[in-house]
Amino acid sequence: MKQRQIEEYEVNPFTLFIKPKRYGNKVYSQIIEVEDEFLSPLKPLDIIKNSCFGSDYEGCRKGSMLLINAKHKIPIAIDPTNNLFFFPTASPNREECIWISLDHIKDLLRISPKETLIIFRNKQSYIIPVAYSTIQNQISHTATLKWKLMQRIEYNQKKSFYLMNRPLALEASEKSPKYGKNSKSEE
Predict the structure, then answer these.
(1) What pTM does this model have?
(2) What share of the chain is helix, strand, coil (3-state, %, to 5)?
């Protein structure tokens, strides 16, 4: 695959991962998609921040922290309705942090104590310089975040459906003529 240089990038359903790439004293982003590769002058965290849908990065981060009860290396729901859940391999502020899409991962293999081979659904595989246990833990946190957010979305959809489709006038049985004071048997 030939890597193309781009100025701006937004995470999308084809994004597999975003990793830092150093050029002199500047950190760029190497973006790997299902069938493409890009190089951006933005840092990986900047791309993640610019991609958050319907909220800012800090809002997404705080929401994730509350839902999964975690404080470090927080996964982000960039766009839950399109299954865009990404997790960092290190603290997002660290230069070596890679952001990986949960939904594209098919399998993992331990290569060495500090390297993991990630096999993606499109049959591409990449060695990530991170411990296998760290990747497993991050996948677990991200899957929990996805599960909890999807539960909330489903609950809210059901609630909205009910509110939109309920009868306009719900009357209690006590108000019906049979049980109420205006019944003929009481007069």
Answers:
(1) 0.81
(2) 30, 30, 40
Q: Alpha carbon of 144 to those of 25, 108, 117, 167, 177: distances in Å? A: 37, 18, 22, 37, 52
Cα–Cα distances in angstroms (integers) from residue 180 to residues 168, 176, 177, 187, in the given order: 21, 6, 5, 11
Contacts 24+ apart (CB under 8 A), 129-133: 129/96, 130/89, 130/90, 130/98, 132/108
Question: Strands, E, within the chain: which ranges?
Answer: 3-5, 15-23, 26-33, 37-40, 76-79, 84-88, 99-101, 105-112, 115-120, 125-128
Residue with tokens 């997790």: 87
CB-based burial label for 138 (10 Å; 0-12, 13-18, 19+): buried
Are the beta carbons of 115 and 96 closer than 8 angstroms?
Answer: no
CA distance 139 to 161: 32
pLDDT of 114 reads 97
Q: Positive or negative CA dihedral for 174, 176, 182, 183?
A: negative
Q: Is residue 160 within 8 Å of residue 152, measured between CB atoms?
A: no
The predicted pLDDT at position 3 comes to 79
**CA 31, chain centre distance (Å):** 17
170 pLDDT more than 60 = no
pLDDT score recorded for residue 10: 94
